Amino acid sequence: MDTFGLIQLAELIYEYCGIDFYKNLSSLEAKISERLKELGLSCWEYGGYLRVEPKEWDTLIELITVNETYFFREENLLEEFRKVILPQYKDRTPNNPLRIWCSACSSGEEPYTLAILSEETGLFEAGAIEIIASDIDKKVLEKATRGLYNKKSFSFRTMPKEMLDKYFVLFGEDYKVKDSIRAKVNFRRLNLLEENISEKIGKVDIIFCRNVLIYFDKKAIDKVISSLCDTLKVGGYLFLGHAETITGMNTGFETIYAPSTFYYRKGEKR
User: Fold this and answer.
1) 247 and 195, same structural domain?
2) In the record, which residues are listed under signal peptide (predicted)?
3) Which of 117, 128, 187, 229 could be joined to 124 by an S-S link, Cβ 3.0–4.6 Å?
4) Helix %, strand %, coil % for the chain, to 5?
5) What's the CA angle centered on 103, arms 174 and 81, to 5 degrees?
C-alpha cells in the first residue's frame, strides 16, 4: 500500500467533496486500483494528475461514491411525506410552486418517487410542484435524466406493482418513467461542499438529503447542514436517512417524531 500517496489522495478528495477516507485507506485503494493500472500511475502520481486534468474528477467520483438506491425507499418516511407534509402545501400554484430539493439523487429513483407520490395525492395541478434533483456524480445523473431502469434491477425491489403499471412504460428490457413524471424533475450537477448553494438552488420548501452525511466528518457535516438550512425556507422540512441525526446540534432545526420515523423542521431562528 502506498500509504503516503493514499493519504495525499484522501486529502484531495476531502477538500473536493467532503468524503472522508482518512480512516479507511484500504477501501480507497480498492476503489481506485484498476483506474491507476489503466493510467499507469502510482497513487502519488494520480494526485498530480487530478490537478492537471480536472475532468478526471468525474471518473474518480464515480469510483468512490456509493449509489445504492431504489424506488420507494423507507416506506414509513414516505408515508409521512405523502399524508402529512404534502397536504400542507395543497394551495400551491404554478406561479408559487412547491419546491423540493433532492440533494443527493444518485440515479434518480428518489426524486421520481417523490414526483409519483405528489401525483398520487391529487392535490396539485400541473406545474405546482418543482423537484430539483442534484448529485456530484455526472454519470448517474445522465442515467437519472434518461429515466430508464432495467426490468431486473434492484431499483424496483420495493416498488408497488400498481405504481409500476401506472407510472412506467415498457421500453425493451427496461422500464421507462412516464414523461408526465419526468417533467416534474429538474436534474443538475452539484457538489454539496460548494459555496453559495442557496443562491444556486434558490429557496425550497422541502429537502431530502438521505444517506449522505454518513460519509462525512463533523466539519463537513456542519458545512452541509449550514447550506441546507440557508436554502430551506422557515417552516420547511428536512428529511435525512434513518441512520443519520442532527439532534443536539445547534442547527436551527427542531426534531419531529412520527410513528416509525423522524425528520426536521426549520425554526424561526438559528
Assistant:
1) yes
2) none
3) 128
4) 45, 20, 35
5) 80
Residue 69 lies in a domain: no
For residue 70, being part of any structural domain is answered with no
Question: pLDDT tens across 25-71, in order?
Answer: 898 999 999 999 999 999 889 989 998 998 898 889 888 887 778 99
Strand partners, 174: 150, 171
Q: Are residues 230 and 149 in the same domain?
A: yes
| 127's grid cell | 406545474
Tally the domains of the chain: 2
- Per-residue burial over 78-91, b = 16 or more CB atoms within 10 Å of its CB, e = otherwise: bebbbeebbeebee
C-alpha cell at 144: 437519472
Q: Are residues 8 and 109 in the same domain?
A: no
- Verify that 144 and 45 share a domain, yes or no: no
Domain containing 245 equals 75-266
The model's pTM: 0.87
CA 229 to each of CA 18, 101, 181, 187, 225: distance values in angstroms, whole numbers, following the listed order: 18, 12, 28, 21, 6
Report if residue 164 sits inside a domain.
yes
- Over the stretch 197-240, which tens digit does the pLDDT of each residue have? 999 999 999 999 998 888 888 888 989 999 999 999 999 999 99
CA 16 to each of CA 9, 51, 118, 209, 269: distance values in angstroms, whole numbers, following the listed order: 11, 11, 34, 19, 30
